[in-house]
Amino acid sequence: MTSPAPQIPSIEASQLANQVAPNALAWQAENEQLHSILSSKNEEIQNLKNKLHALQNEQPEVKKPLSIQKNNQAEASASPASGWQSGEFTAYYPANDAMQGGGITAKGDNLYKSIYYQGYRVIAAPPSVPFNSIVEIKVSGQTVEGIVRDRGGAIKGNKFDLAYPDKSSAVNFGRQQGSWRLIK
Q: What is the pTM of this model?
């Protein structure tokens, strides 16, 4: 059996081929370069994800012994603030209005960037609790270690405000009763 004779391309196809052919090698080289860059970036992203995962796994190991150490120090000091107290807890989030502080805490932290400071959740506390104090909070079966970096007009007595990243999370938290104690 003989193979069919090749078809002769039309004039338009020939013209198109002549126009495309000179660029084909350049496009192929560009494609290979972009593929190489993309592969490199994907590798960088994976390395960063691995580092983040490792740091997240390290944090509880580092933080837990410090917490235990701080708890032992607090219990040994026999300070009246070392005991659990009842409290009311609300949530706030970065927003561009005066009531929310415009996303900047009283200590100058930008809540748009992070709701954490030195590994602790940013909280607003009454003036009786000094700035940079570490407070352990138990609400709805969860324990949160927070750092006092903010104040608020309605934050008095045993009322605290926990920073959340967005309005939806803050609204879901709502207003809750719980307990707190000063760790450091």
A: 0.54
